[in-house]
Predict the structure.
Amino acid sequence: MLARFFSSSKRPFSSLSEQEILALAISSEEDDARIYLAYADQLREQYPQSAKVFEDMAEVEHTHRNQLIDMHRQRFGERIPLIRREHVSDFYDRKPDWLRANQSLDQIRAEAETMEQGAYRFYMAAAQRTTDAQTRKLLGDLALAEQGHEEIASMLGERHTPEDVKAEEDASAHRQFVLTYVQPGLAGLMDGSVSTLAPIFAAAFATGDTWQTFLVGLSASVGAGISMGFTEAAHDDGKLSGRGSPIKRGLASGIMTALGGLGHALPYLIPHFWTATITAAVVVFFELWAIAFIQNKYMETPFLRAAMQVVLGGSLVLAAGILIGNG
């Protein structure tokens, strides 16, 4: 029982024969080609030039695969053993399709670079651990091939995505990030932070009970988050506006709305009234300045104007809540 628990279903790389090493290289080239084509399909609509880079990289992988198959045919015949990277321990991993589906353009570029560098390092390390001359040469050749992939990827990038095109695609990616996450999230944060000020502080000064105030703040924050999330997701499917997935926008808006309200509701878990109230007021101060900072950084609103709008508006709502609670 214990032996089965501690045993691994993967074989160590050192146990593979030269034929199995060659078969492993063939299957790896096939997998990498499919990954690059998947990247191309994912990017084609929004980043056609980068999609072309990955299509050409997939073609390079197919070329190397055919060369490896010819080598296998010459040395070992027509039957290629079934062995893949997931069968071998210490072999560089590849993410499955469902983990690559929502990567950004920069993440895809970084992943492709990591793929080629990881393959190169693995084959070089494997060659150094091998004493058989022919196997050592084979692993060294594979390492050089992977290093060549990096150079080819660089050349293809220069051909299809020159600096002006790359800058344009990066700007488009940033714009999409702002539209899908920052804009709805900022709207939610502003709504949650400002709209809950009046009910929370009104409840605090009307009751003087920190626990009851916390319950009011919790219900107001969660309710506002649910309302804002559904409203954001329902009013625009993103197809015509280009604002992205309504589910992502709804989650960004709803979560940030709830967090905006909870920020100054949580201090009322402190049982001492004035300690909780002063802490909540300090939290409100940082919330409002955080909103002004986000507006300045992502929405290009001048910082002083953003600060004036948010801080002034928040202060008026806060004062209204205190006055109503003392009324």
